[in-house]
Amino acid sequence: MILALGGAVLLVAYFALAPIFVLLYGSLSDAPPGTLGNITLANYAQAYLDPEFYPLFWSTIQFALGSSLLSFLLGTFLAWACERTNIPFRGIVTTLVTVLFIIPGILETVAWILLLSPQIGLINLGIRTLMAMPDFSLNIYSLGGMIWAESMSLYPLVFLLMSAAFRSQDVALEEASLACGAGNFTTLCKITLRVVTPAMLSVVLITFIRAVEAFEVPALIGVRAGIFVFTTKIYGALQRLRPHYGIAGAYSVILLLMSTVGVFFYYQMTKGAEKFATVTGKGYRPRRMELGAWKYATGFSCLLIVGVTAILPLINLIWASLTPYMAVPSLEMILQLSLKSYQELFHLPFAQKAFINSILLSFGSATAVMFLTSCIAWITVKSQLQGRFLIDIVAFSPIAVPGIVLGVSLLILYLTVPVPIYGTLWILFIAYMTKYLPYGIRTASASMIQIGKELEEASMVSGATWFQTFGKIFLPLVMPGFVAGWIYIAVVSLRELSTSILLYSQQSIVLSILVFDLWESGLYSSVSALGVLMVLFLMVVTWIARGIGARIGYIE
Amino acid sequence: MVCSIFLRRRGTERIKSFYGKFLALALIVLGMFSAYSTLWASGHIDIEAARKEKKITIYSSISLEDITILAKAFEKKYPWIQVNSYRAGKIRLGQRIVTEARAGKSQFDVLLSSAFTTLEIKLQKLLAQYESPERARFRAELKDPEGYWTAAQINTMSVAYNTKLVKRDEVPKDWGDLLNPRWKGKIAINANRPEWYIGLLQMMGEEEGRKYMKSLAEMKTIPLESATLADELLAAGEYPLFANAAPGNTERIRKKGAPVDWARLHTLPTYPILVSVSSRAGSPNSARLMADFLISEDGQKVLREIPRIPARTGVEADPPHLTKGVNLFYININAMAGKADDLEGEFRKTFGLR
């Protein structure tokens, strides 16, 4: 048992800390990356004494807070409605939300531009015509627009994590509340939401930091809005022939600090983990709240939310895949629809290899990360090890490293260190594992907290070894969280680009590189077609994953 | 230091003998080296050695699809060579090459990229001289006098416009027309094409050029990081003008039926995509074979089919009016050396792109 846990900790520590070490060294060195140099604080001075930095950082905080809040509200509301109430359309809503985060990042942002651009945005055009309001204009090129676009890509994660949390809830507390005379709403506020606090804190932490290091939205929308954010500085430092790697490292330190403080805060708030245990020896059946007459209103509002946030971009994607060039829908364009871009996909070079590599990498890294982080979560939640929250911080720290910075760090690391994985699939595997460890640990930790200790104790008392307990008790019970984390990592790793682009080779080419390549070649329709196919494929994968999770675990 | 040790330990006789032998050896090695490098530089390729190399790696900033078309054509001609390609944007590409070289693990044999990147790689001493016999058919501006690079493709730059939003008589006829107040807030600029900034500065002279750029930036230009997005949004009608478009790309979209075209301005700045060979090539002979192929008439015709604008004199572009009937200003590549990074920063700063 010690071996397994110790091994997990060592592996996680290596994956997370090695690139961060390279990063920190780079930030303190005056030499070009990959060579030894003198220790200096010049990079930090240049980074933090830059007067442009502070207003930039303030804009970033505003953007991140807004995105975090909006995605939290949307995701939690939908998750609660689908998991804990009896609203109609539950299945459709769940499927559509999943679809949303499958769409490759760049296509999603482009979709929102095409929907909310003041000139050609469909929503604007639609409202202007249908509601006879010729001056109506929602402008995506604004802070509000940026927050909206970023929240769209963040709220499915919130939905996934909160669904898992709600699914593992013991109804006894709620029933007690209702029995005491409290109404549905009071129960919701005082009991349900309080009990899932660890999960809520986890998602807020993740989404906030994710928003701080967001790239696509600030690049495609923010630049035009004249709103520059933190990542603008980091990418500015790296997006040049002679990259200022040290400065990028110096900037990343703030993110590291934020994530460390965040995790520390999380631990303070979730002390006395037992009060959050909802899966206990008493047995549980997650019960659905009867909303009565309210169920239709709630159901329709959910449908409306996913309709606007998921169906519209999806329709835009399908439309884009069928038209020869970007265009507003019109009769003239309808006559030009064709499946040509789908046919062209068959001639894509390396399509088969990319597909196989992507599947191997995404499924492999998702599984590996979830197993490793489940072990780590057991240590941080269930054991009494001193300073165990440090292990959590270590596992969570890669979230503070923006994708491109991670790519450069790993490039330097594996060109220097004599581990022969450069140019192979393994370096991408390590990159994905490093990148998604934080999601794994947050999911696993939030799930692990929900399991009461009586179950473990009963198992040990009955003579089971730690392995048997872990395998037969913990894993099945954390299955909802495990599957949620797995699905998220598997899907998002298929879209991962910023790190892969520096590390791939022809042998290890992946789907996201193909998507990017098509995009850069100006083949917008083909990218969209590939996007549609990826969505279909991943919908099937998600459905299967849920099914397998339901078999192994205890899910309704 | 070796000498002083010897002086102390041995007698003068042995020193003379040692020096003599050393000198002779040094001269022989030097002679061989210069003969060897002259052979390399002069275009001699050992086909037998190439056969043994069996594979070649090309790093390019042109798309994977396009590079695969070229690679397949090359493999058809030399079936014993397998081509590996890596593709990334011009900046990422440069970073990867330099980082690999620093670690002593250079992977590329051939580089096919914008002058922007190639010059930097040359500065880092990672390129080899190669006087391919095919270079005779290229203009002086499109080949390095020292033999480090040759142009495989050229990109012209002009103003692209949406034909539904711009009337015939409003189409700009010269770069200055962009400063017309009617275009305020309606001109898109691609942040990823610093070659345009560099080119216009060379064309207009640095002082005049910078003045022009500042005036243009005051027209509230619309910045776009992605060239593709800039082209597509133009087709969709988001804005009427795109200041630093590549007519080659505009023609591609126009062929699909989009309502776009490019202005036949008085002079179009033009920059090349260069082919060069690594000085640390694992397959040096195959690398030279590939370099030859890419700039040969056959290779240039394959390039034209992609479609891209061939750089070789005598191979027309498709459609021909991309280069015929327009005044092309070829950017002085070597004048860019060492300044490219700074000029790019200046470009971004002027237009509020960073």
What would you say this structure looks like, in words?
The complex is a heterodimer of chains A (556) and B (354). Helices cover 73% and strands 0% of the residues of chain A. Chain A is mainly alpha-helical. In chain A, helix 21 (453-461) runs antiparallel to helix 22 (466-477). The mean pLDDT of chain A is 84. Chain B is an alpha/beta fold. In chain B, strands 1, 2, 3, 4, 5, 11 and 12 form a seven-stranded mixed β-sheet that branches. In chain B, strands 8-7-9-6-10 form a five-stranded mixed β-sheet, covered by helices on one side. In chain B, helix 3 crosses helix 11 (284-295), helix 7 crosses helix 8 and helix 11 crosses helix 12.
Q: Which terms summarize this structure?
A:
heterodimer, A: 556 residues, mainly alpha, 73% helix, B: 354 residues, alpha/beta, seven-stranded mixed beta sheet, globular
Please give a quick description of this structure:
The complex is a heterodimer of chains A (556) and B (354). Chain A has 556 residues and is mainly alpha-helical. Helices cover 73% and strands 0% of the residues of chain A.
Topology readout:
The complex is a heterodimer of chains A (556) and B (354).
Chain A: H1 2-28, H2 42-48, H3 53-84, H4 90-102, H5 105-116, H6 122-130, H7 143-167, H8 172-179, H9 184-195, H10 197-212, H11 216-225, H12 230-238, H13 245-269, H14 294-322, H15 331-334, H16 340-345, H17 351-382, H18 388-396, H19 403-416, H20 425-449, H21 453-461, H22 466-477, H23 479-495, H24 500-503, H25 511-520, H26 524-552
Helix pairs in contact in A: 1-13, 1-17, 1-18, 1-19, 2-13, 3-4, 3-7, 3-10, 3-14, 4-7, 4-14, 4-26, 5-7, 5-11, 5-14, 7-10, 7-11, 7-23, 8-9, 10-13, 10-20, 12-13, 13-18, 14-26, 17-18, 17-20, 17-23, 17-25, 20-23, 21-22, 23-26, 25-26
Chain B: H1 2-9, H2 12-42, H3 47-53, E1 55-60, H4 64-77, E2 82-87, H5 90-102, E3 110-114, H6 115-123, E4 127-128, E5 150-156, E6 158-162, E7 187-190, H7 194-204, H8 206-217, E8 222-224, H9 227-236, E9 241-245, H10 247-255, E10 260-262, E11 267-278, H11 284-295, H12 297-305, E12 327-330, H13 340-350
Parallel strand pairs in B: 1-2, 1-3, 7-8, 7-9, 11-12
Antiparallel strand pairs in B: 3-11, 4-11, 5-11, 6-9, 6-10
